[in-house]
Structure formats: C-alpha cells, structure tokens
Automatic annotation (TrEMBL):
The lineage of its organism: Eukaryota, Metazoa, Spiralia, Lophotrochozoa, Platyhelminthes. The keyword Transmembrane applies. The chain crosses the membrane at residues 12-30, 37-59, 65-84, 96-116, 128-151. It is found in: Membrane. This is Protein TEX261. InterPro entries: Svp26/Tex261 (IPR007277). GO terms for molecular function: COPII receptor activity. One of its GO terms (biological process) is endoplasmic reticulum to Golgi vesicle-mediated transport.
C-alpha cells in the first residue's frame, strides 16, 4: 500500500506542476495580447465592469447578502472604471489607483468575512470570486505591462533632460532621436518583463534558439 501512497503524492505533484506551467503560459500569452490590443482590452474591461455592477445589483435583489459587501464591491468597480480614462497608462501615486488597491483588499476581506459567517457551498463561493471580484482587477494587473509602453509626458521628459554644449542632452547621454527608445527600455519592469526573465532563466540555451530547417 505504501507504493500506491507514494505514487499518489507524486501524481499530486505532477498535476500541480502541470497546472502552474499552463497558468504561466496562459498569463504570458494574455500579457502579450494586452500589449498588442490595448484598445480592445480597454473596451473589454469596461464591459466587464458594467456586467459585474449588474451582477452586484442582481445579488442584492435576489440573494441575502451584506449591504456593506455589495457597497464596497460597487465602489471598487467604479474606481476601476475611473482608471480607464488614462488606459493603458497608470499613475501609481494617484489617489484613484491607491484607493482602488485598498478597496480590492477590503472587498476580499468582507467577502471572506461574509462567507465565514453565512455558510455557502464551495461552488457558490467560487462563483462569487470568479464573477464579482476577480475579472476586472485581473485584467488591470496584466495591463500594467502595457503601461510601460506609454510615451513620457512633458513633465517626465523635463526631469530627464540636462543642458549640453550642443543642444539638449538626455539622461542616457544620447540625443533626442534615442530618447523614446531609451526611456521605454529603462521602464521595462512589468509582468511581461518578469515572465521573459523567468523563461530565459529556466529554459536551456538550446531551447531559446529557433530551429533551422
């Protein structure tokens, strides 16, 4: 019996590794799609927010739910919608972004507190988090990679400039023709950048190169 017991735990480890691998591949693919189709992603997030707000209203009318839980969820999604005004650019120090992050944590806390007091089947708990809590924040987090492709504003550019003997020199020592490329290269620190580094560190060198036929 001990052999089957060991094989059972090995099977658990295998399926967990397969799930993590598929999740990482899917996340990488979604991050690339978001960078490629930012306009469509913005529209998708907007419609997701509208649908989630409609689900909150239906939950309030048809189910016995906390008013505070519904109110925080509605307020959080309204703040998510306000972030779309500058999409895919995000100002991490802006009050709307900071309040959105805090309300996301508060929404999770109230949801866990509600389901701890009112017994619900696991399927209903999973449905609540899947359709009323996670969709819009998940896409916004993935969109942080696209945020790094946004061109610098005038104020940001002025901080990176310094006077030179022949015209204007930038912080990287180059001319204005290299300003945008140097700026974007210096800001590549998002989700897709992390996944690329993880892929390069895990895969052997032979796997990275393309096969020649």
């Amino acid at each position: 019996m001990w052999l089957l017991w060991c094989l059972g735990w090995a099977a658990y480890a295998f399926y967990a590794a397969a799930f993590l691998f598929c999740f990482a591949v899917g996340l990488y693919y979604l991050a690339e799609l978001v960078e490629e189709y930012t306009v469509f992603t913005c529209k998708l997030i907007r419609w997701l927010i509208i649908g989630t707000l409609a689900l909150h209203a239906a939950l309030l009318l048809l189910e016995d739910a906390w008013w505070s839980l519904i109110a925080v969820g509605v307020l959080a999604h309204l703040l998510y919608a306000s972030l779309l005004k500058t999409y895919p650019g995000f100002q991490f120090s802006s009050p709307s972004f900071i309040l959105s992050a805090l309300l996301l944590l508060a929404h999770h806390y109230l949801a866990f507190a509600y389901f701890a007091e009112a017994y619900r089947p696991f399927l209903e708990v999973l449905a609540f988090f899947t359709f009323l809590v996670w969709p819009a924040p998940f896409l916004l987090v993935i969109s942080l990679s696209a945020n790094e492709l946004v061109l610098p504003q005038t104020e940001e550019r002025s901080h990176l400039m310094m006077p030179g003997s022949s015209g204007v020199l930038y912080a990287d020592g180059g001319s204005s023709s290299h300003f945008v490329s140097a700026y974007l290269k210096g800001r590549r620190r998002g989700l897709l950048y992390f996944l690329n580094n993880l892929r390069d560190s895990l895969l052997p060198n032979g796997w990275k190169s393309k096969k020649g036929y």
